[in-house]
Amino acid sequence: MDSIGKLLEKVIMHYEKKEYDDAEKASDELLASHPDLHRAQFLKAVILEETGRAEEAEKHYAKAGNKFTLWTRLALQLHDADPERAITYYERVSKMDPQNNLVWFNLGSLYEKMRRFDEARLCFRNLSPVKEIVSRIFIPLGFMIFLVGGAILMIQRGEKALASLVIASAVFCLVWLKRDGGTAVQMLGKKNKYRQHHP
Questions:
Q1: CA–CA distance, 75 with 146 (Å, rounded to integer)
Q2: Predicted pLDDT at 198
Q3: Integer Cα distance of 109 and 119 in angstroms
Q4: Among 10, 69, 88, 175, which is disulfide-ready with 26 (CB 3.0 to 4.6 Å)?
Q5: Residues 55-73: b if buried by 16+ CB within 10 A, e if exposed
Q6: pLDDT value for 2
Q7: Are 12 and 31 in contact (CB under 8 A)?
Q8: Contacts of 67 by beta carbon, 8 Å cutoff, 6+ apart
């Protein structure tokens, strides 16, 4: 018998290719050996829903756990591979959490890539970049400054080993800032761009 990981990969591979019969067989095999596995219940539900069996899908969604997280992950997974299906799940999660900037940003970026500019505009106008700038730039920057200041004081007191750990944490904050700060700046740019251009 295949491991959980291999069976999950098999389901996902067939699902991404829209080989629904094979995906369903693999998900049934996975559920037979691991009926409580949330991801397997979720994938079975998605397959059923996409093949027109919504009522049956709901039974599996009920056992799948946090649908918001799972649908978001699925949308991200499909983002480049199958934009139309990704849009379905981004739109679903945007209704579940209309304050989620990352969902609006990803959905808007996908619409923009598909040259569906009116829909992209609606998504980017829903962004709250100030919240993202505070959480993705100012907070990590402030924490990094705090850590560097603490490391300097430790070095002055001769606690070099402890200071090196604090400096390593500051470097981690810098990486975090670089990764997340860029997204916040992009969000601000998209919001401004689409604010200025009217349909």
A1: 37
A2: 52
A3: 10
A4: 10
A5: eebeebbebbeebeebbbe
A6: 66
A7: no
A8: 42, 61, 96
Extract the tokens encoding 2: 């295949």
User: What pLDDT, on a 0 to 100 scale, did the predictor assign at position 115?
Assistant: 95
Binning the chain into helix, strand and coil, the percentages to the nearest 5 are: 80, 0, 20
Residues 126 and 98: beta-carbon distance below 8 Å: yes
Chain centre to alpha carbon of residue 76 = 6
CA-based torsion, 36, 38, 40, 41: positive or negative: positive
Distance of alpha carbon 63 from alpha carbon 69, whole angstroms: 14
50 close to 20: Cβ distance less than 8 angstroms: yes
Q: What does the pLDDT read at residue 117?
A: 94
Considering the entire predicted model, what is its pTM?
A: 0.76
What is the sign of the dihedral through the CA atoms of 13, 19, 22 and 27? positive
Mean pLDDT by 10 residues, the chain (199 residues): 81 92 92 90 94 93 92 93 93 94 94 94 88 79 87 89 88 82 82 71
Question: CB neighbours (10 Å) of residue 121?
Answer: 20
**What single-letter amino acid sits at 123?**
C
CB 49 within 8 A of CB 57: yes
